[in-house]
Design a protein that fits this description.
- The protein has eleven helices and 31 strands.
- The protein is of the alpha+beta class.
- It has a nine-stranded mixed β-sheet. It has a four-stranded antiparallel β-sheet with strand order 12-13-14-15, with no helix packed on it. A four-stranded antiparallel β-sheet has the order 16-17-18-19, with no helix packed on it.
- The chain starts with 50 loop residues before the first strand and ends with a helix.
Length: 617
């Protein structure tokens, strides 16, 4: 395992090894080039058709380890009282601090989502959505989008700061990744943990909600341990419902009442396989993202808002940070950070509306993404889902929002077409499906984006050097195609991987490197960026996770007793959480976890431990 940087897995040309930076190499300088600053966009429609825009995950890699705040040094001395073993670990930790001091890197202001309106276009705008076909070891699209955002209203910086500390005193606070917070495990279970409000009032700053997505269409996301409702305390003041939205709202309401609180980390433990959700209305990650936006709105500190290094605790006051964990659902967490597919094709009209289609990297199933090109070259990826089986998809889209998709059959040389329309939310409706010919590698385009005439060109099924074409007209009234002249042609097939319009240029492709067959896009202004879910939440990793997850986050959870691993993670710049944290853990760890997730937050030993280590509340 390499040394952890607080940066993020982002750019398709940056090797995984560049994510990990030894402490000794800290210089406060950025790595990479301006070409590494790749950004994307996310937009969510509401009643006023406005949207939140947030920072890209395409920032260049930061240096590791900002200077340590005063509380940490004070704790290093205090913890020596724990005994010989604790003293030795404290001394070692002190030496580690000495190595890290001076490695502090400048932190840019934390950029938060700003409200933006979509540009001109009859169907611009939209709620993001997504789906996946990752079952077992395979997956399809799970995209997202990010944007470069505006600076926070108050502005925030990294490293130590001066401001109001907990308890109302004035002093410095450390960067978030160097601070320690009280935390609970299975926070929804009540009993010795108390209600959620009682936990927050007592200084708990990380709460965990296990949730399930099965039966989402009728029940939504529901809280529970092994199953919805399992080990959930639904007596007031906790919510009397299992709806995840209600439990999140408790945190949001408390935050409203206590606007200067230190940041609260909401850890969502994924209990069901979310990769089998084919669309937003089935409970995909896009639906989860939308829920987070609805409940927390401007309180959210987006994962893609993270700049060169972590903001300080004081800078993050009033903020909610969301994490996704779940050791048994590794595929789901992996699905949140990247999309995979083959044979990607794209269409774009003059309004900048985009439809991308591709085949699964593992199966002959066909998937789509919709998006909106922004003035700065970013693409806001919106809806995503599976629409058919087949190979070699191609698509055309006119300025009226109508599209024609064509593809080769999954099992033979038959060529098929779909007629459909993109709506004002960016979602697709598929109307008419028919077989029209035999051949390979079909391509299609509108002859005029304002019109209804198209041309299709495909390779002969018997002679690779021969192409055939069709002239056809789309009738939006009965949602059917009228097939006209058909002949052999010397013209080349259309480039299905790139689309040109008055809005600009967009290209799509699959790329190896970070994760085989990862779907990427590029525009006039953005060389390359991944197609994926909006990166609102931070991924919480687990030991043994695949490289794509380890590279994507500095958060990691450890079970009680994993002292050496948790302490090593922290010394490498990571943010650690220990679940089922108990008194033995408190007595044995020379370097405490950032989040000590206990089942007994109101016991005297836990309060005393928090005071000793200088936990923020």
């Amino acid at each position: 395992m390499g040394w952890l940087s607080p940066g993020w897995f982002v750019h398709a040309t940056v090797p995984l090894s560049s994510i990990f930076v030894p402490l000794g190499s800290c210089s406060g300088t950025k790595e990479g080039t301006a070409q590494d600053l790749v950004a994307e966009s996310f937009i969510r429609m509401n009643d006023s058709a406005s949207a939140l825009r947030y920072h890209s995950g395409m920032e260049e890699k930061p240096a590791v380890a900002a200077a340590i705040g005063r509380r940490r040094v004070t704790w290093s001395v205090c913890s020596m009282a724990r005994g010989e073993r604790g003293m030795m670990r404290s001394i070692l930790w002190g030496l580690c601090l000495g190595c890290m001091v001076g490695c502090s890197s400048k932190t840019d202001s934390v950029a938060e989502p700003e409200t933006v309106e979509l540009g001109d276009g009859t169907d611009s705008g939209a709620a993001e959505a997504g789906a996946s076909d990752e079952t077992g070891a395979s997956t399809d699209g799970q995209g997202g989008d990010e944007t470069a955002g505006a600076a926070d209203e108050g502005g925030t910086g990294g490293g130590s700061d001066s401001g109001t500390e907990d308890g109302g005193s004035t002093g410095e606070s450390p960067p978030y990744n160097e601070a320690i917070f009280r935390s609970t495990h299975n926070s929804y279970s009540g009993h010795e943990r108390g209600a959620i409000l009682e936990q927050l009032d007592a200084g708990i700053r990380q709460v965990e909600f296990d949730f399930h997505d099965n039966e989402y269409a009728t029940e939504g996301f529901r809280v529970g341990h092994g199953s919805p409702g399992s080990e959930v305390e639904t007596e007031p003041p906790n919510p009397t419902t299992l709806a995840l939205s209600a439990w999140l709202q408790v945190v949001a309401d408390w935050s409203d009442t206590n606007p200067e609180h230190t940041p609260v980390h909401v850890l969502l433990n994924i209990k069901d396989d979310m990769t089998d959700n084919r669309h937003t209305n089935q409970g995909s990650f896009a639906a989860l993202n939308e829920l987070l936006l609805d409940v927390f709105a401007e309180r959210l500190f987006w994962a893609r808002s993270l700049g060169e290094s972590w903001p300080t605790v004081n800078d993050l006051r009033g903020k909610i940070i969301v994490g996704l964990t779940g050791q048994e659902t590794t595929g789901s967490r992996r699905a949140y950070v990247r999309d995979r597919g083959l044979e990607a094709a794209v269409a774009m009209n003059d309004h900048g509306q985009i439809i991308e289609v591709h085949k699964s990297e593992a199966h002959n199933t066909l998937w789509y993404w919709t998006g909106q090109l922004q003035d700065d070259g970013l693409v806001i990826w919106q809806h995503h889902g599976q629409y058919d089986e087949g190979r070699n998809p191609s698509i055309a889209l006119n300025n009226h929002g109508w599209f024609v998709e064509i593809h080769r059959s999954q099992s033979d040389d038959d060529l098929w077409s779909w007629v459909g329309r993109i709506d004002s939310s960016g979602d697709l409706s598929f109307y008419t499906n028919e077989e029209f010919d035999e051949g390979h590698l079909p391509t299609i385009d509108f002859t005029d984006l304002e019109g209804w005439s198209l041309r299709e060109i495909h390779q002969s099924s018997s002679e690779d050097s021969v192409n055939w074409d069709w002239d056809l007209v789309l009738d939006s009234g009965d949602t059917r195609l009228t097939w006209g002249a058909h002949s052999r042609t010397d013209d080349a097939r259309f480039d299905a991987t790139s689309a040109h319009s008055e809005a600009g240029i967009v290209s799509v492709w699959s790329e190896d490197g970070h994760d085989d067959d990862m779907l990427m896009y590029g525009t006039d202004a953005i060389p390359e960026a991944p197609i994926r879910y909006a990166q609102i939440a931070f991924i919480d990793t687990s030991p043994g996770d695949p490289a794509v997850l380890e590279a994507s986050s500095v958060f990691r959870s450890f079970p009680s007793g994993s002292h050496a691993d948790a302490m090593t993670w922290r010394t490498r710049g990571g943010i650690s959480r220990m679940w089922k944290f108990d008194e033995d853990d408190a007595d044995s760890m020379g370097i405490p976890p950032n989040f000590a997730a206990t089942d007994t937050p109101f016991e005297d030993w836990y309060f005393a431990w928090g005071e000793t280590v200088g936990a923020y509340d």
